[in-house]
Amino acid sequence: MKGSLTAKISLIFFAGFVLVCVLFYVITRMQHDRAIEKVKENHFNAVTWLVSMHKKSTMPDDLEDYFRNFDLVYVRDSELKFEILTNGSLLDRAKTAIGLVETLLYKDELYLAIKNQNFSLLLRSTAKSSKDMLIIAFVLTASLLGWVYFSMLKSLEPLKSLRADMHSFASGNMEAVCRAKPLVEGADEIAEVAYEFNNAACKIKELILSRQLFLRTIMHELKTPIGKGMIASAMLPSEALQTRFRDIFERLSILIDEFAKIEQLLSKSYALKYENYHFSLILEQVADMLMLENFDEKVISNLKSDPILRVDFQLFCLAIKNLVDNALKYSATKKAYVDVDETRVSVRNPGAPLERDIEYYKQAFVRAKVPSKPGLGLGLYIIENICEMHKFKFEYAYLADAGEHEFSIVFGGANVKAKA
Asked: Is the overall model pTM greater than 0.90, yes or no?
């Protein structure tokens, strides 16, 4: 992955390996040049002393032993000798009292050739070169770098699993994250991070489960008096009162179901159930959920088209219901206007401009400070979360010319199957 830690480490080690190669190459060349100079010096000294001894008529009895003192030995292989004398590069030539002296370069080594009427010698240097030691040092250094590099890559491998766990945790899959045994074992920093993440995941899971249990217990207990109330309402003498109380208890039951969905939504544990629905059907469900008298008079609908949306029916109905309910609640005329086309649904209501930026009112438990308007301040927060889950856009604009607030859910082709 571009810009990843692995790529950066690989780049650093590659640069380090290149620098090591360059360093050893420079050192090798310096050592080679120094060795060549040493051989040249031995050649010079051997010839100089031999010429001096010749002038004094005190030539050594054993030339081979004499040259050995200068780290020089005879080349006895006739084929190699012929190859050197034929293909060797001539670096220096001088006529001396003992004959013609030549310095030859063959396969990166220096040879000393001495020729006269009595003998012809070819000598090579036996001085030990440090080249082998440099090669060994280079191999050891490169091996150490390679071991450190692959060790670091192996140490970073658990980060991929840790990242996958974090992604699962963020998606609400806490069962796969919180485990009895940590993902990464060891005593290094990565293992410590994995251990702390595992502890945090387990604690957050416990908190969420305890909250869910608490809320679901309350909702379950509320169902019992609601059921008894519906039975008791059937015993009222007046049919009008029976209908009125039955509607009230049904409304309470619907609210409890909505609270259950809101709890799941806020805890990020709600799984969407996508199906195709005409928007007109969604609007009918919203009318039932609002339980308004004269819905069509209070909510003016303008369906320019009736797109088929692929949505979670109950959750999306909850978003539209909150949008319409919010518009009616703060409408100066007690009316709301719903406009629908192929790309969006917009809900408008007359009213004064907001005191703060819209982002402030999208926060949980924040609402306009109007004492006569009850509520928890969750409406816009819930709508925006539902839109995000459906990959829709939630937009707001204040139409100054008309003096209206306009909230829009923009689907613009996303999750839209067809037009009516």
From this structure: no
